[in-house]
Amino acid sequence: MRKWIWLMLLVLMTVAVLGSRGSTFFEQHLSPTIVERIPVKTPELQPSREVDITPQVSTDKLLKHIQKLNFQRYTTKERSLTRTYITTELKKAGWKPKLEKFSDGVNIFAERLGTNKAAKAILVAAHYDTVASSPGADDNASGVAVVLEVARLLGSRPTPRTLQLAFFDQEEAGLLGSQAFVSQKARLQNLGGAIVMDMVGYACYTPGCQKYPAGLPVTPPSDKGDFLAVVGDTEHLSLLNAFQNSQNIPSIALNKQESMPAVLTLPIPFKGLLTPDTLRSDHAPFWYQGVGAVLVTDTANLRTPHYHKPSDVPATIERSFFTGAAQIVVNATSALLEKDQVLETQPPS
């Protein structure tokens, strides 16, 4: 009997062992959980829509140019020294200036090609000579300084339009340099417009310090000389419009204490025949060749008491106004270089 009991116990133990192992041998491997693989869409990298930020002018560099040109630029030798300074600064900025001689003097010309050969060029210019006995800080070292700053900031900036620079000689002798420049008809064929600076560094804030010529087509905004005037022909209003919008273009604010002055745009009809005071600088020869041009100015003797005098020295330059005026020119130039449409005013349909 005891033997059978032991046999029964042995059988039960065997079954228990086999049953426990059977859970391994006959285990149904659970199908792995089916996970629906939804492809993750990696967002496509959109081309960065960078705000077209115009480079900020340097007050220090602008004033340095005026200090370096703080001498009378009237005699042949003095004008030669001036050309040496200008061409040296252009070469530092990566330009290849050319001296262009004419019967009474020497102009300086430089060019940076645009990416669209069909888009006409924009010229930025100023005269570098002075009258006798004046160091011409405002007239016109201020204009020269702004052109050099345009050269530094926009020289390596790719744009559809070609950027041209010119420094005219003998403006004070009767616009001789600019007249020689526009006499090259082949050059004018690819010129869309010219921006000419003549005195952009003086401001006055006393009521009554600003005068106006007769026959202006607009109502003067103020009797204070705290604005920048831009004079253009009505046949090329796009040039004037670029300056009207120039204060709305963002710039890299290196010095937010500097602010841009108000801009007074003057559209002049009939090429200035009714307002001869608007023909006194190097933009006028372009008008008479059918090329759009604007004169950017602080209004010269209509504002400053130092016009053509020995007192036109660097100390009379109004730093904040001058910096703001230069920034306006850089902004407007940059905007015009980015466009490739025709700048002529279209007649009403």
Describe this structure in words.
This protein is an alpha/beta fold and 349 residues long. Helices cover 32% and strands 15% of the residues. It has helices at residues 2-25, 59-68, 76-92, 137-154, 176-182, 185-188, 237-244, 284-287, 319-338, and strands at residues 98-102, 105-112, 121-127, 163-168, 191-197, 227-233, 262-268, 293-297. An 8-stranded mixed sheet has the order 1-2-4-3-5-8-6-7, sandwiched between helices. Helix 3 (76-92) runs parallel beside helix 4 (137-154) and helix 4 (137-154) crosses helix 9. Mean pLDDT is 85; it is low at 1-51 and 253-257.
* Fraction of helical residues: 25-40%
Q: Enumerate the spans where pLDDT stays under 50 for 5 or more consecutive residues.
A: 1-51, 253-257
Total beta strand runs: 8
Q: What is the subunit organization of this protein?
A: single chain
- Gross morphology is globular
Beta-strand content: 5-15%
- The sequence of SSEs as H and E is HHHEEEHEHHEEHEHEH
What is the count of helical runs? 9
Indicate the mean pLDDT. Answer: 85
**Termini distance?**
127 Å
Derived structural class:
alpha/beta
Strand order of the largest sheet: 1-2-4-3-5-8-6-7
Radius of gyration: 36 Å
The biggest beta sheet reads:
8 strands, mixed
Question: Which short descriptors sum up this protein?
Answer:
9 helices, alpha/beta, 8-stranded mixed sheet, 349 residues, 32% helix, single chain, globular
